[in-house]
Amino acid sequence: MRPDEITEAKRACIRRLNEVARGRGRTLAQRALAWVLRHPQVTSALIGASRLQHIEDNVAALQGPPFAAEDLNTIDQLLSTGTPPTHA
Hints:
Elements: H1 8-23, H2 28-37, H3 52-61, H4 69-81
Helix pairs in contact: 1-4, 2-3
């Protein structure tokens, strides 16, 4: 992304996604990888690693807890609108 595309709304969305990931004891990168790989149409994901720790972190993404329906709803809402869902 170009610097002018990084808005406060996008930062807020990323912070909220990070909160969702941390709530499950994982990093945002781990949950993002798990989110991509949970789709049956996806057979692999390309990861970048320059250290062994990066590979270990990526493998840990597969060992994390499954996505709760509430988490998926929040993530889908954030990705589509940039704002979390409101709860009645």
